[in-house]
């Protein structure tokens, strides 16, 4: 299956690497974190986050606005999460909330189903050669049959620094609260713990996954390593195609 999964902890560089790689090999790139972020944003916008936090295990997901009723399938849920301005999804509040919401099995079930359908439709339409998906459980749960599974990680201090710089360069003074390094660090600690220890679909490294620690290597080196892995794992990508994208 021409699906490449890239999992790993927050701020490890998955999205950046996946996006660059998708341009190089002409694959479609799908960021699964954004769909969890989109749901978090919706709960926050509906003013329901407080209620959600105190009743986490009994929260009535049907309470959410008719357009976003989780328990019914929302046909354009994935499309909505793609079309929204990504910057609106990258606030600290949404980062923290999305990780909490992602613990709910019902939410995961519905989002996974919607994401799988979207990707399979995309591949089936023959508009794309393949797809790169990134997240926490894309190789272990979402696409266990993916042809190539990568896990990108980095030391937490490195990830804190990367996220800190990323936020500083993205947000203006309206987001001063966002740029305190301790808050970035504390948020990563909490998210690492929640994403790695939740009962349903925790972030794990499954046995056919190749782990790349990017703490001391550049983005370019990481991409080189992944291209070398893809050559072995996805040998069926046609030779002609490989030549056109400098794949060999
Ligand atoms: N060697 C590296 N590899 C990847 N990203 C790096 C590297 N060095 C610095 N970065 C930077 O780290 C920042 C975080 O990367 P990115 O947002 O892609 O992480 P992520 O793993 O997708 O995070 P999240 O899961 O929270 O969305 C980006 O600004 C990226 O440019
Ligand atoms: N496959 C996924 C992707 C994301 N999540 C949750 C957990 C994360 O903390 C949150 C935000 O993701 P990010 O944008 O940081 O990649 O969404 C998940 O549980 N499973």
Automatic annotation (TrEMBL):
Top-level lineage group: Bacteria
UniProt cross-references to SUPFAM superfamilies, sorted A to Z: P-loop containing nucleoside triphosphate hydrolases (SSF52540)
A molecular-function term among this protein's GO annotations: dCMP kinase activity
Keywords on record: ATP-binding, Cytoplasm, Kinase, Nucleotide-binding, Transferase
Main subcellular location: cytoplasm
GO BP, one annotated term: pyrimidine nucleotide metabolic process
Residues that, per the record, bind ATP: 8-16
GO cellular component annotations of the record: cytoplasm
Enzyme Commission number(s) of this protein: 2.7.4.25
The protein's name: Cytidylate kinase
Organism: Lyticum sinuosum
Source taxonomy: Bacteria, Pseudomonadati, Pseudomonadota, Alphaproteobacteria, Rickettsiales
């Amino acid at each position: 299956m021409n699906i490449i999964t890239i999992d790993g902890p927050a701020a490890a560089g998955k999205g950046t690497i996946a996006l660059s790689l998708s341009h190089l090999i002409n694959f479609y790139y799908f960021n699964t974190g954004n769909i969890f972020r989109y749901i978090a944003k919706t709960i926050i916008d509906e003013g329901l986050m407080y209620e959600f936090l105190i009743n986490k295990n009994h929260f009535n997901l049907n309470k959410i606005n008719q357009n976003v009723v989780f328990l019914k399938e929302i046909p354009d849920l994935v499309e909505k999460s793609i079309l929204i301005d990504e910057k609106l999804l990258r606030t600290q509040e949404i980062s923290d909330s999305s990780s909490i919401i992602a613990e709910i099995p019902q939410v995961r079930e519905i989002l996974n189903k919607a994401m799988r359908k979207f990707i399979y439709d995309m591949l089936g339409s023959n508009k794309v050669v393949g797809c790169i998906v990134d997240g926490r459980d894309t190789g272990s749960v979402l696409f266990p049959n993916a042809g190539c599974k990568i896990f990108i990680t980095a030391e937490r201090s490195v990830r804190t620094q990367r996220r800190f710089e990323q936020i500083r360069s993205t947000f203006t003074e309206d987001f001063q609260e966002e740029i305190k390094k301790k808050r970035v660090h504390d948020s990563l600690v909490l998210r690492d713990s929640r994403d790695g220890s939740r009962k349903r679909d925790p972030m794990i490294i499954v046995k056919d996954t190749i782990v790349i620690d990017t703490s001391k290597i550049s983005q370019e080196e990481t991409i080189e390593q992944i291209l070398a892995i893809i050559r072995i794992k996805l040998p069926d990508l046609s030779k002609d195609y490989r030549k056109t994208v400098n794949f060999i």
